[in-house]
Description:
With about 525 residues, the first copy, chain A, is of the alpha+beta class. Chain A folds into three domains: about 1-155, Orthogonal Bundle (Ammonium transporter fold); about 215-355, Orthogonal Bundle (Ammonium transporter fold); about 370-520, Glucose Permease (Domain IIA). In chain A, about 50% of the residues lie in helices and about 10% in strands. In chain A, the strands form two sheets. A seven-stranded antiparallel β-sheet of chain A has the order 1-2-9-6-5-4-7, with no helix packed on it. In chain A, strands 3-8 form a two-stranded antiparallel sheet. In chain A, β5 and β6 form a beta hairpin. In chain A, α2 crosses α3 (about 30-40) and α4 (about 45-65) crosses α7. The first copy, chain A, is elongated. Chains A and B meet through α14 and α15 of A and α7 and α8 of B.
Amino acid sequence: MKMPESQNKITGKEILYSILNSYSQVFFSTSKTLAVFLVVISFFDYGAGIGGLVAVIIANLLAWNLGYNTYLLRSGLYGFNALLVGLGVGLYYQPSPEVYILVAITALTCFFLTVVFQGVLGKYGLPFLSVPFLLTIWIVALSANSLSALNLSERGIFVYNELYSLGGKIFVDFYDFLEKSIGSSFIRIYFHSLGAIFFQTHLLAGIVIALGLLIYSRITLVLSVLGFTVAFLFYRLVGIEFDSLGYTFIGFNYILTAIALGGYYLVPGRISFGWIIILLPAVVLITTSTQQVFMLFRISPYSLPFNVIVLVFLYALKLREQRPRHLIETPVQLGKPEKNLYLYSGNMKRFPAAYPVSATLPFFGEWTASQAHNGEYTHKGAWRHAFDFVITDRKGQQFKNEGDFAEDYYCFGKAVLAPADGIVAEAIDSIPDNTIGDVNTKDNWGNTVIIKHNETLYSKLSHLKFHSVEVKTGDSVKKGQLIGRCGNSGRSPYPHLHFQFQANPYVGSSTIDYPFGHYLLKE
Amino acid sequence: MKMPESQNKITGKEILYSILNSYSQVFFSTSKTLAVFLVVISFFDYGAGIGGLVAVIIANLLAWNLGYNTYLLRSGLYGFNALLVGLGVGLYYQPSPEVYILVAITALTCFFLTVVFQGVLGKYGLPFLSVPFLLTIWIVALSANSLSALNLSERGIFVYNELYSLGGKIFVDFYDFLEKSIGSSFIRIYFHSLGAIFFQTHLLAGIVIALGLLIYSRITLVLSVLGFTVAFLFYRLVGIEFDSLGYTFIGFNYILTAIALGGYYLVPGRISFGWIIILLPAVVLITTSTQQVFMLFRISPYSLPFNVIVLVFLYALKLREQRPRHLIETPVQLGKPEKNLYLYSGNMKRFPAAYPVSATLPFFGEWTASQAHNGEYTHKGAWRHAFDFVITDRKGQQFKNEGDFAEDYYCFGKAVLAPADGIVAEAIDSIPDNTIGDVNTKDNWGNTVIIKHNETLYSKLSHLKFHSVEVKTGDSVKKGQLIGRCGNSGRSPYPHLHFQFQANPYVGSSTIDYPFGHYLLKE
Amino acid sequence: MKMPESQNKITGKEILYSILNSYSQVFFSTSKTLAVFLVVISFFDYGAGIGGLVAVIIANLLAWNLGYNTYLLRSGLYGFNALLVGLGVGLYYQPSPEVYILVAITALTCFFLTVVFQGVLGKYGLPFLSVPFLLTIWIVALSANSLSALNLSERGIFVYNELYSLGGKIFVDFYDFLEKSIGSSFIRIYFHSLGAIFFQTHLLAGIVIALGLLIYSRITLVLSVLGFTVAFLFYRLVGIEFDSLGYTFIGFNYILTAIALGGYYLVPGRISFGWIIILLPAVVLITTSTQQVFMLFRISPYSLPFNVIVLVFLYALKLREQRPRHLIETPVQLGKPEKNLYLYSGNMKRFPAAYPVSATLPFFGEWTASQAHNGEYTHKGAWRHAFDFVITDRKGQQFKNEGDFAEDYYCFGKAVLAPADGIVAEAIDSIPDNTIGDVNTKDNWGNTVIIKHNETLYSKLSHLKFHSVEVKTGDSVKKGQLIGRCGNSGRSPYPHLHFQFQANPYVGSSTIDYPFGHYLLKE
């Protein structure tokens, strides 16, 4: 529970990472390259750029200072909603000291809302997406009229001036060329909507982001076009006016929904693409209806439709009793559709009849689950999906001799492996092993390694041997890689390996029911 | 966990049932007669009728295809909210291909919202009522202005035309006769409100539904009149205009609340009727206030007041520490107030001093609860209200000889009985018994029968003997009827009967605290 | 579970207490003096005063009659939201029989909403504050236009008339004097806002309340001024019009937030005052934005901003992984900032390096935790933060001789102490001890004492010896005071002390993770 060292360990590199990741998380990614790209785009409007940066720094400072999870902090998860709010506020007002005080207050509000929604939606196993951003930006937008000391920005109206200030005459000419050559309103509104994700109103911003996606992940780009196209066709079919998307922050809902569901939360493929086509009309209806409501208050629903459909759909899929083979949630979400697809295909080859799961048992050879899922013994309640593994001999004994020493136990010192690819979220290695029969009630889980497989899938390997852990926080690990050795540290009366999947990186997290046992029993 | 056969078992009859039950569920029932009645009424407006049918079929197809619970599917619980949405959309627009595409999209949206609210409200032990319908119909109604390719229906304005097309001159004359003979605006608005539950604007529809209720359940009819009368008197007392109820979809809130609380969720009787009188004025206030809010968006609150009051009241009753004898939740809700009342009275005679519970112990003779509620041993967390039963001899031993064989255990092979009337929601019979000491970690609960007693009360009997189960899914069972025999299948190291009450039909559901132990300890 | 005696025990004194506490709870207190003060103020407007009293009586009657927790009832927790609603309705309308029927209906609605939010927010360990009041007052306010039989009050417009009727010419002159001498609109609006907490529009009411706070708790008064000042400065900085606060029920949000967070839920001190300064601007933004929304419906957000910020902030603090020393939640909230501070300082002296917790072990000498937090054995799920304590000898044995008799156990009959100051919320003493090996499954927890330390911290000491309990419900106890003796009653196969912290006073409550173990392991 105590991890005083982790607080001191914050280095300059980690500060930089937490800031950069706050940018790339907007696209569900932790790619540093993409982050640099997005930082640059955010500064297309320098007021927005500064606002975003200030907000990210304040949110991350709060997370660090108040003792929130350093791993999530480093992943940018505490910062990206505040970033969006900062961009929005920075864009809306003319830069002034008061505006940056306002940015600071909204970043603080957004940060606390992030923590709250992480807690509340986390109880349902759902990501918080951009819900904290939404609430905060609405607070700002609704207050806008009352804040008479702040001046609205007139940027966006004089696009040419800004372009000139950014890149001189070349930029202006290039922009002019684009405007003229893109005759199709469909394509122009697509680029506008892409840019609007980062509160950019220039056509150019959208084009640069599209370019970034092309380099970073082609599936993502294809999905963004697919989502937008389906929405466009449905607009036509039922007679909704399309051009209004050209000057509102609304169209990106179709793009984000397609990316999130088509490539990240579902395994990308014909089926996931099909569901995008089925679901997008519903997103359109949610968009037009919420617009009617928000119009009355003179604010935009922003990304509300995207948040609603993704949360509803993901939660509904979770509640299925049988998981049909043709609609598959990403088992190990790796921040890039291409990787999700690769991982899935790889497993399909090896386990053709089984679930698309990359997880393997975290050891070699034959072990016994002394306590498996919903066991009659102790893994109950929040810990009901955990496994305790030991090695037994033919007589079912776990030890030789009298079992008075840790070394007598067959599993003690045996290799413990990463069950799947991932990044080490936590590595504790400094807790001595107990003598047999004793338990260490202070360091409950003992030496423990937590590996992040995706945003909502982590595995925890506990009670490892003192000083046996071979990885450190932040390390990237491959499936089957040696992590440490089975030990007897923590609340462990005799050597065994505690293994569980969980939805977040905390040492004390409850388990989730990930279809791991299926392999266990087939092996 | 795996139940591949149930997916294949879907027969034509079951498809028909799932569709019919989607209609009768609107009145908390699974009566086929009532269903046929309601199908006919829905086609009074053929656009609405088709819309409703299309929506039901799409919702049920999704439930079946995506692997949701087949029992709930058959009960119409996945379909009835979509039905209401389909009726509403079908009525609102003139029939056209686009309209039925819209119906399909809204049915899909409504289906996913049904699953979500089943999950979320289920966590609080509450039914989802028509909350999914509400959200979906608001989405459609708010989008209506934007959908310029669809034409609003002008039906309802030309009632006579429609009546003529339905039943010729006889119908028109009859309707004319009704209109003239029912002078009282109170009675006319009552019938209008009754019809409005099915989106019917004709007076006739209300009269037919009233007739249906008269045949199906007189208590229901009486309650509907009581609720409406109390509301009417309160309108008078505080000076709210009453006639507006004649052309809005609002008045049925008073009828539905009275039926739901007066006869279904509470044991019908003087006390439940008294509470209807106390609560109805609050429903009126919720109605007038929500109308003020929704008026601004030019939509109706529809059944929102009904949903609010029923959910608030049921949840508040759940949180009581002591259950006073004069306000009693239906212990086993049987879809018809008359049955609820009968069941309650029967029990009151037999157990005059006790709770009105029909549940008995699921076996004959004297057994021992090796693990009862909140036991010190293993029934913890979500399973904390479960019982494990065994038979012990005078020395407290559970077996004769060495206990090495299942047959040595006194309880093995003994009859297991239905603890209360109900319908079999799940029956698994194909899992071999374990040898003593082994556990089957794959089929956790072993051979299992789940019996539905009411919408939120199910009992589960687990670890039954291989091929001993005497009932099959869908069977109606009586209290005390032989269900199967005590066995040693699933995660059971030695023969015992696992018994629990739970709030839904899933094999892996958590237990609920139903006052069963009271009898147990009195016996 | 059964506590029939508690229902009969309701005496006249207890009825009076439940009514008085409903008044002082508005300021998070159970002070009888403060209550009398507030009752008097409420009758400054006799319509409001009667309305408030009627509402409190109805809510408390419902709580008592329907079997809700008598301890919470006595603390005024079921009454204070209804009180506020009754005051509001009573003030808004001219007194008439219809108005008091309306008060009764809204009190009933508010009561059920209180129970519901106690349940829902309680799941997150949060207080329900004035959320039930908010929903109810909005229902009334939105319905106001429709209730044509009720006449709006014109009081408040003729302040002088009322003052005259209250206190004759002296009052009028005094009021006149005040109005003239308080030139500063800041000070006048401060007093107005203070009075508005009790729906009083007179300047005088604010001044009397300020006087009451000065006597009752100076820190509370200072905080109220601090919060109001910060809000005022922020209004100036961003140019929000300040004077509108003079005639709306809005400004008290700044006062209540400062009091709640600065002195009750956080340990008062420089840090808590600092956070008030940081958070108040966010409260201002939430206020201005919600006002924009509610303005459209012509209603006030009332205390919504206060509720939002307090719930968000408290929940976010709960989710911290590490508790930094400079932002500390009150460990034992004692209804008065001064006491909270004193308690904290006292502990800081004794445990300079530790958490500011006043809890000590509930016994003398050295005991063994046979099951501590998240134990491998049985304290799982909702009970995972519980402790079972026994006394062991050098060989680790818990008993002498054969352990066949309760008296053989070292812990049996040993003193059990109050772990911290508090009030006895429940004391059960009438359950016989079991013979060794037996368990009493009917009275699960056996003889049990529950002590309330603050609104959300209770401790439970269970399985006490038959007739050993030395305290009774309502007693005030000091840390270390003798409560009873270790026994073997309830579901206890051998003598031990079950100890847990929990968030509410119910016998069956789940445990919370209160940093008690820290001391345990340091001792």
